[in-house]
Amino acid sequence: MTAQSKREIRQVEDVLLVIDVQNDFMPGGALAVARADEVIPLTNRLACRFTHVVLTQDWHPRSHISFAANHAGRKPFEFMTLPYGEQVLWPVHCVQDTPGAAFHRDLDIPHARAVIRKGHHEHVDSYSAFVEADHTTPTGLTGYLRDTGVKRVWCCGLATDFCVAWSSLDARAAGFEVAVIEDATRAIDLNGSLEAAWREMTAAGVKRVRAADLLG
Ligand code: VGL
Ligand code: ZN
């Protein structure tokens, strides 16, 4: 990568959005994402380059609607139609204030300015850091980013095809420039969901970049 094509990070306009780097998404966790732990060193290096970093944290009540265990006869990874749309039923994960919901201990971003917790409403999931799955209820992140002068959102974390995809699409819809740092993400890839997510993100104008584009 030449200096010319390296992407410059703008200290006021840019934010790094680090999505759901939590124990339950790690290998061995309740909703393990393959090789999810590999993103951590790269995420730490990326975060050092940004003055503005925001973390998200999946943060469900134990009674959450997205858990298969809360629907009689249902199993994890089945689909279910809910009032707000199709919902994947997940294993119990990221229950509020449990070790599984904690950030991975090696995530080292002491200068992170905000943590957005999402999925805390019992009856609505929220893959997106911006708007819950009812497509209506805001988390407040759009207003926070606008108020702090952000124009561009750089996304990394877990999982590429769920929370990263939905967050980046909603960030675009809110009018931000958006890029996903692909090698700082890992996917669940359920029935082709990864390819579908990239198709949607690309169509929406989300840029697909690599960490080296920023780190040089
Ligand atoms: C996520 C499924 C359920 C994610 C969160 O972080 O991508 N996926 N909850
Ligand atoms: Zn979740």
Short précis:
This protein has 216 residues and is of the alpha/beta class.
Total number of helices: 5
Per CATH, the architecture is 3-Layer(aba) Sandwich
* Model regions low in confidence, pLDDT < 50 over at least 5 residues: none
Largest sheet: spatial strand order: 5-2-1-6-7-8
Order of helices and strands: EHEEEEHEHEHEH
First-residue to last-residue Cα separation: 7 Å
Please give the oligomerization state of what you see: single chain
Q: What's the number of extended β-strand segments? A: 8
β-strand amount: 15-25%
GO molecular function: metal ion binding; nicotinamidase activity
EC number: 3.5.1.19
Protein name: Nicotinamidase
Organism: Paraburkholderia humisilvae
List keywords for this structure.
six-stranded parallel sheet; binds pyrazine-2-carboxylic acid; Isochorismatase-like_sf; binds zinc ion; single chain; 5 helices; 22% helix; Isochorismatase_Nicotinamidase; metal-binding
List the helices and strands and how they pair.
Blueprint: E1 14-19, H1 39-49, E2 53-58, E3 79-82, E4 85-88, E5 114-118, H2 141-147, E6 152-158, H3 160-173, E7 177-186, H4 193-203, E8 207-209, H5 211-215
Parallel strand pairs: 1-2, 1-6, 2-5, 6-7, 7-8
Antiparallel strand pairs: 3-4
